[in-house]
Amino acid sequence: MADETHEGGTLPDGTLPGGERSGGTHNTVSGQARVGAVVQAQQIGELHQHIQAAPPPEAEPPYQLPPAIRLFVARQAEQERIRGAAESRPGERGPRVVTLVGMAGIGKTALSFEVGRALSDRFPDGVLYVDLDDYRRDGAVELADVHAELLTGLGVAPEWLKRSPAGRQKQYWSRTNGKRLLVVIDNAGSDTEVELLIPSSPGSMAIVAGHGALQQPPGADSVEVPVQPLAEEDAVRLLRRLVDDERPAAEPEAVLELARGCGGLPAALHVAGRWAHKYRRRSLSRLVAELTAELRERGIPIVEAVWDAAYDGLGLEAARLYRVLPQFPAPAVTAAAATALLGAGPLAAEEALEELERAGLLEYRPEGFRMHDLLRGHAERRSRQADPEGTERTAARRRLVRWYRRQAARADLLAAGSRMTFAELEAALPDVPDVEFAGTNGKAAALRWLEAHRLALYGCVRSAYDSGWFVDAAALCEPLWTHFLDHPHYADVIEAFGTGIAAADRLEDRRLMVRMRCQLARPLWEQELFGDAAEQLRQAMGTADGLGDDPKDRKLKASAVEFRGLLKLAQHDWAGAAVDFELSRSEHQAIDNAYGVLLQTYQLGKAALGAGDHTRAAELFEEAHQAARHQERERMIARTGFELGRALRRLGRTDEASALMRAALVAARERGSSTEEVRVLKELARLADDLGDPAEARRQRAEARLLTERSGGLADS
Fold first, then answer.
1. pLDDT tens digit string along 110-151?
2. Which one of 24, 90, 144, 236 is at 20 to 30 Å from 404 when CA atoms are compared?
3. What is the DSSP letter of 63?
4. If you compute the radius of gyration of the chain from its CA atoms, what whole number of angstroms results?
5. pLDDT in tens, 626-652
């Protein structure tokens, strides 16, 4: 069934997902339930007064830059130019944009961080940071997902994010309008990427670190700041700080030669300085001579020789981890993931990471350890030299994929409960501990873990497929479905499920072919790619015809029919949707799947309501509501009760509708879902209109509008 995987997921027509606990809200139209509804109404009134009297505290403005580093030097001219742009009056056409232009490894990111920290007090509404390389797929950036990250930083909950790219763009402009924000955009590849990420307010500013020369975005006060290699005196000053002993003062010529050899690249100077610091008993002249010998013998640049020297000084485990780190498919690696790559236990991995950081070969950020792209290339070269056949790389990648497959499945089971899946739980890896999700809020912890590791999870799907591990590629997609329902990163999920389908095809696994084509259809239709979604479902239905007659196969067939009905529902084809939901319900009845019958009855009610057959809708929702109460499915109790109330209102049965609506409002507030609360408030406003109480209708709409604004939604949300 399309919805069984996560009862709280947003439905295609925006239907109320319901609350965690009903707390006495099992309302029917019976007399006993009417008494309960009076109590509910009293609770609503008290709760409403409390909310009105105590508005939520102001959230702290976002601040997303990493901590300052002690060893940042020079760049005074560049900093002054950026500060000048910040201090100048905003132009008439739009916000200010500063573009940092220079070669890789020149220090653009560090400069943007340094200036961003210094200017943060000028932007009281917050400082945001986004690395576009985190969202780059085959050279293109999925801007809808970038907007989602920026909006989340601005306090917009995932449930309030618009589904379409155009909707998220408008939401970003709306959320940044009138604000004084600083947005740091790293690794921009084109002026188009930048233009669509600039805040809408003239009082805001963007600092952009580009891959190359970028055209100035239209409608903004633009300043281009070239970033050159460090001057010799600044490079020497950085080396003196890094080495931090008496040798630089005693051997100034050696320091100067080393600085010149690094070409003024901070990425190289940091490694060279830390390497020299490590061998503090050797003279700098001797160390530089060793590098020069490497240069002459092998014909490599001194920068490469510096990195080779740092690598050669590593311990066995740190060197091995350095070689396999490029196999990690995301920008930042955690200690747990590094443990899987290394396969030598947590302590060995932690010590290896610390050694690589001390050597300047890794940089620590709050989200994990990052490797500069230049160093990633060096690590790949050293890996090929040490392991021409790729055995070590393959083993590390295999451990990583297996570990992520197991952890994601465990997180999914905790977050979504038992549902229709086909992959076996991967066995635990020796010396690689499982993630701990236990606790009073284990479900929330599991969902947070899936979101925090999403880039690695999606990357592992592609890595597994490219390695020929088709079972793993398909298995990794199953928990990503749960993640998608709460965090709709469309580009990632469409690519991942497309890869999962390819893996299922290679495996000739009909069940997986059907399931994943259905699941791929949903993000497609939510992006209004209805034709593509229909094609996926057409192929899924064709494959489903070849399934067997055992209950699991019949359940999967019924689920595929339901997905087809949901696509029609999203396109307002009420009659076509009803046909599919009826077919699916009949199949669930035949295999005695009570929950499937309940869900399809509910879906039939939505189709009837959409078609304007309010009597039939009320009958179906009443049947589904009673079934949900019998099965003690709390979310479906709230969901069916709300829809029943909507149908009864249209039939003029306002008293019964009011009791159900107010119960739904309590459930939404108990669950803490502002989208559900707004939806109920809007329906209560319509009910007040029907009852001839315009003052109450205005009050409900005003509260819905206020809650929408506080949550970061658009006015039409």
1. 889 988 998 999 999 999 999 998 888 777 888 888 999 999
2. 144
3. B
4. 29
5. 999 999 988 899 999 999 999 999 999
- Range 466-482 burial, b when 16+ CB lie within 10 A, else e: eeebbbbbbbbbbbbbb
Strand partners, 99: 208, 224
Tokens of 327: 């196999």
User: Higher model confidence: residue 665 or residue 45?
Assistant: 665
| Strands 182-188 vs 127-131: parallel, antiparallel or unpaired | parallel
Distance of alpha carbon 676 from alpha carbon 664, whole angstroms: 9
In the block, residue with structure tokens 């970038």: 146
Among candidate residues 188, 101, 194, 102, the one with its CA nearest the CA of residue 139: 188
Q: How would you class 316 by CB atoms within 10 Å of its CB: exposed for 0-12, middle for 13-18, buried for 19 or more?
A: exposed
Write the single-letter amino acid at 25: T
Strand partners, 206: 97, 183
CA atoms of 408 and 420, how far apart (whole Å): 15
Residue type, 461: V
Residue 365: partners with Cβ closer than 8 Å, 6 or more residues away: 66, 332
CA distance 635 to 621: 14
Indicate the range of 230-234, 325-329, 424-428 predicted with least confidence.
230-234
Residue 75 region by backbone torsions, left for phi larger than 0, else alpha for psi between -120 and 50, else beta = left
**Residue 52 belongs to what H/E stretch?**
helix 31-53
Cβ atoms within 10 Å, residue 102: 20
70: which 2 tokens?
């002690």
pLDDT at 21: 30
Extract the tokens encoding 124. 């009281």
CA–CA dist 478, 515 (Å, integer): 9
Got the DSSP string for 170-232? Answer: HHHHHHHTT---EEEEEEE--HHHHHTTS-S-TT-EEEEEESS--PPPTTSEEEEEE-PPPPH
Distance in angstroms (rounded) separating the CA atoms of residues 460 and 3:
26
Dihedral, CA of residue 175, residue 176, residue 178 and residue 184, to nearest 10 = 160
The count of other CB atoms within 10 Å of the CB of residue 659 is 25
pLDDT of residue 569: 97
How many beta carbons lie within 10 A of that of residue 691, not counting itself?
15
**Residue-wise pLDDT tens digits, 429-463:** 999 999 988 665 788 888 889 989 999 999 999 99
Distance CA 147, CA 236 (A): 41
**Are 272 and 262 within 8 A, CB to CB?**
yes
| Distances from the Cα of 634 to the Cα of 37, 409, 668, angstroms | 17, 24, 12
Give 387's contacts (C-beta < 8 A, 6+ positions apart): 323, 393
Q: Which residues contact 369 (CB under 8 A, 6 or more apart)?
A: 332, 333, 334, 338, 353, 356, 357, 362, 363
306: which 2 tokens?
Answer: 């510096």
Query: How do 96-101 and 221-226 pair as beta strands?
Result: parallel
Looking at residue 108, its pLDDT comes to 87
> Closest Cα partner for 462 from 337, 330, 343, 335?
330
User: How far is residue 59's CA from residue 124's CA, in Å, rounded to a whole number?
Assistant: 12
Of 351 and 65, the structure prediction assigns the larger pLDDT to: 351
Is residue 306 within 8 Å of 266, Cβ to Cβ?
no
Asked whether the beta carbons of 325 and 319 are under 8 A apart, the reply is no
